[in-house]
From TrEMBL:
Name of the protein in its database record: Serine hydrolase domain-containing protein
Pfam families assigned: Beta-lactamase
Molecular function GO labels: hydrolase activity
Broad class of enzyme this protein falls into: hydrolase
Native source organism of the sequence: Parapedobacter deserti
Span of domain Beta-lactamase-related: 30-344
């Protein structure tokens, strides 16, 4: 199935026809996102229902200095929205039998200290590993050079303990997804960026999406990140950790992500049982539910429907990919500024969803 061809044919051409229930709803959405308009860092919004574009809205600038407005083609740094792609790569390799959910860190990296002996791939996927977050050990000024995924491993090798015994608690840690990206490289014999390109982006027709590596790749129609400092927007596009790929280094746009969204309803990327497991609550050792699948946060709507979502926050980018699979409904909102707080992106998505479903 050519997902891109099908989506372009049925979705984009209908985007001006399949608006929310009234123009009043569109104006209400514009009010919710009004802060992104004008001569400021902007936002790109896409709402998809039943495989068709319900609404596209684009606000503000992708590049303030050159007055480049945000469009459907604008590529934003996804930050932690990238984690779902890292998880998908790992699950592909598990499905091929190249590793297992029970594979431990030392099986891939024998030099890893004893605190990782019982940490499995599943623990890393679900943030139940207890592996410390590497960002706590990287100075904001460490730009020369920026740390990469292999540098995360170097940091973790120097430590002698984790936060807790694996499987006993849930604590979000970017380190786990950097290690998973390195496992993709170890078990596929390809670089992580090359694996993504060959096994996900190209097959699906996500032609603008890239795991960006400075001096190796370019980002077309790139949005640059901005932070509000002393009342003015200043370009602050990178941090010391922005070159780590597995936890947040992918750039994409709303249309490519819509293609990915539709692929998750089929088996073009993974067999259905792996996708379903990615959206399932897993258990701690004491039986408590973990509100995180494989690369996705999990919650319920007020009416009890399952929501799978991920926010993304890095230097001057705030994003959310919000899905209600039972309704085949998704909201993709990408922005290039350091506001609001990451958790508030979920609130924005829910406000938009409420307008459509009221």
């Amino acid at each position: 199935m050519d997902i891109r061809k099908n989506f372009v044919a049925t979705g984009i051409m209908l985007c001006t026809l399949l608006q929310p229930s009234s123009s009043q709803d569109v104006r209400a959405i514009d009010r919710i996102l009004a802060a992104y308009g004008g001569e400021s860092p902007g936002a790109s919004l896409l709402i998809v229902r039943d495989g068709q574009v319900l609404l596209q809205r684009h606000y503000g600038y992708a590049d303030l200095e050159n007055k480049q407005p945000v469009s459907a083609a604008t590529n934003f740094r996804l930050a932690s929205v990238s984690k779902q792609f890292t998880a998908a790569c790992i699950l592909q390799l598990v499905h091929q039998g190249k590793l297992d959910l029970s594979t431990t860190i030392p099986e891939a990296f024998p030099e890893f200290p004893a605190y990782g002996n019982a940490v499995t791939v599943k623990h890393l996927l679900t943030h139940t590993s207890g592996i410390p977050d590497y960002e706590d050990y990287v100075a904001d000024t460490a730009f020369n050079p920026q740390i990469k995924d292999s540098g995360v491993l170097d940091i973790l090798i120097q430590l002698d303990s984790g936060y807790f015994a694996p499987g006993t608690q849930h604590r979000y840690s970017n380190s786990g997804y950097a290690l998973l990206a390195l496992m993709v490289e170890h078990y596929s014999s390809q670089s992580f960026a090359a694996y993504l390109r060959e096994h996900i982006f190209i097959p699906l027709g996500m032609t603008s999406t890239v795991a960006h590596e400075a001096e190796k790749t370019t980002v077309p129609a790139r949005a640059f990140g901005y932070s509000l400092l002393n009342g003015q927007w200043k370009r602050r596009d990178q941090s010391a950790t922005s070159a780590v790929l597995g936890d947040g280094g992918i750039y994409s746009n709303v249309m490519d992500l819509a293609i990915w969204d539709q692929a998750l309803y089929g088996e073009d990327v993974l067999p259905a049982h792996w996708i379903n497991e990615s959206f399932a609550c897993h258990k701690l050792a004491n039986g408590d539910n973990v509100p995180y699948g494989y690369g996705w946060h999990l919650k319920k709507t007020n009416s009890g429907e399952q929501v799978v979502y991920h926010t993304g926050s890095s230097t001057s980018f705030r994003n959310i990919f919000y899905r209600i699979p039972s309704r085949r409904f998704s909201i993709i909102l990408l922005t290039n500024r350091n506001q609001p707080q990451e958790e508030d992106m979920l609130t924005l998505a829910e406000q938009v969803a409420d307008l459509i479903f009221l």
